[in-house]
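Annual report, structural modelling task.

Input specification for the NAP complex:
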Amino acid sequence: MPLLGLGTWQLTGDTAGDVEHALQVGYRLIDTSGDYGTQPGIGRALRSSSLDRDEIFLVTKVEEDEDSFEAAQRNLQELGQGYVDLLLIHRPPHNGVGEWLWEGMLEAKREGLAREIGVSNYTSRQIDRLVEGSGERPAVNQVEWSPFGHSWDLMEHAKTNGIVIQAYSPLTRGQRLSDETLAEIGERHGKTAAQVILRWCIQVGAPPIPKAARAEHREENLDVFDFELGAAEMDALTGLNEHYSSLAGLPYV
Ligand code: NAP
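The model returned the following structure:
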């Protein structure tokens, strides 16, 4: 899975144009969902790209109140694609952990609709229950994750179980970008606050999927592979944790 991708929630202005630009400048992972309204535009961008399909890592999600297999088929139809690389349950249902959803996901994988399957917004306990029931672990748990809001317990559990934590809302939807620590570290490396956050995510092993409607933001966010944060800088960034969430609270803490 690529170490950085483009999030497309609310990227509804000119989705196809934005994704075409992203692919041109080097993005190889695109994150969407059946409820984002961006699948048709992403499909158009993929079809007009000169890249081979297997050079691109496409992620989509099914909702917790859907028939997951049918939703996977519908998403593929909207995307105009034969498969996605990763199919996620968007969030755990209110009752239980969604064993019935997981069955549909496993079927989607068996039938070739998805190369890999995973979850989003799950706690480690919920993942354990899902695996107990089916014997099949999710490949990925996509959760809100930034220096300002994260959990080493969740990361530890994920690493132990061979699950990748994928970081959504890594830029705190812009809410913490004026933090002084980010500015100080960024100045040392000639990088912006957003780039410092994304680099921290990559170095802790949580590949981020920042959303950016602005082309200059997309280019800036990709330009994080030519510097490395030192141990003291990583510690300072990790120390910013306040369990911040752009939702009511981090669901997994
Ligand atoms: P985000 O990526 O943390 O923040 C997006 C905001 O940051 C936008 O306002 C964007 O502005 C701005 N931005 C982007 N790059 C910037 C830069 N270099 N400097 C300054 N500002 C910058 O928030 P998000 O959209 O909530 O999360 C990212 C993706 O994660 C979503 O798009 C979606 O794909 C996924 N997600 C998944 C879930 C889930 O439940 N699984 C939930 C939320 C999000 P512009 O758009 O104006 O460029």
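The chain has a mean pLDDT of 97.
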